Amino acid sequence: MASYISDAQWKHYREEGFARIGRVATDEELSALQSRIDDIMLGKAPLDYDRMLMQLDREPGTESPGPQTDGHKGATLSYRKIQSLEFDPLFLSYMQKPVFREACAKVYGDETPIACYRAMFMNKPAREGTQLNWHQDRWSHLDREPLLTIYTALDPATAENGCVRIIPNSHRNRAPLTRPDERRAQMERIVAESESIPLELEAGEVVLLHNWMFHSSGVNSSDVARRAFSVCYMPAETKSSDGLTYSRIFGSGALSVNQLTG
């Protein structure tokens, strides 16, 4: 199998908790993804919106984000979050690129079937955006912890427009999920003692992120939206205590574009 990610990049991922792997999409593919997510927000895409979790950046009449619930919330480019994008043919095709299969095989093993915990659009609209406090991506309702998120910048991500901030090497710190007070104290100590860096990216640039990496993001103080596509990949055998099921992306029984368009 061809290798798309260098040994040096994998070493950086293991040691620092993240690795830049450059552009994956062609110019045409990136443009298509940018246009498709706008069409989804505006209600123009041929999708079953009832299965899409969608959240507005601002609930009308308030200063807070809207509820995270299934269904379209109106034609606007000011959504904060949209999940279940694996059910869009264009985004699914991008998620199944060989480079991402290689990343999953390296993290979880060559023969491990892969599902996505979430395939999510994150947005900080121009002059808007929600403050995201320091945290790790960990979930107590899963029987094993997903380790890999692959993040694609759909627009240039800068400190001015609210790019993700990370604390390199912080993925080595993992307090038990069953002890929230201990986790909170550990996080506060690490944030206070560590130096964070802005994860500034070019449009189309891709980063591998360890899910235990401490990260946060601020508001968008620019006139440029900060759109991104974030996919958390995990072993397909992962079980959820609340009975949820997850779409297979790689391996036997994987979701296909033909299933979505046929």
In terms of DSSP E residues, the strand content is 15-25%
The tally of helices reads 6
- How many structural units, i.e. domains? 1
Using DSSP, what is the number of strands? 13
Quaternary structure annotation = single chain
User: Average pLDDT value?
Assistant: 94
| CATH fold-level label | Jelly Rolls
State the low-pLDDT regions, or none: none
What does this structure look like?
The protein is 24% helix and 24% strand. With 262 residues, it is an alpha+beta fold. The protein has one domain: Jelly Rolls. The strands form two sheets. Strands 1, 2, 3, 4, 5, 7, 10, 12 and 13 form a nine-stranded antiparallel beta sheet that branches. 35% of the residues are buried. The mean pLDDT is 94.
Chart the SSEs and their pairings:
Layout: H1 7-16, E1 18-23, H2 27-41, E2 53-56, E3 69-70, E4 79-82, H3 89-95, H4 98-108, E5 114-124, E6 132-135, E7 148-153, E8 164-166, H5 180-193, E9 197-198, E10 205-210, E11 215-217, E12 226-235, E13 248-250, H6 257-261
What brief labels describe this structure?
single chain; 262 residues; alpha+beta; Jelly Rolls; 4-stranded antiparallel β-sheet; 6 helices
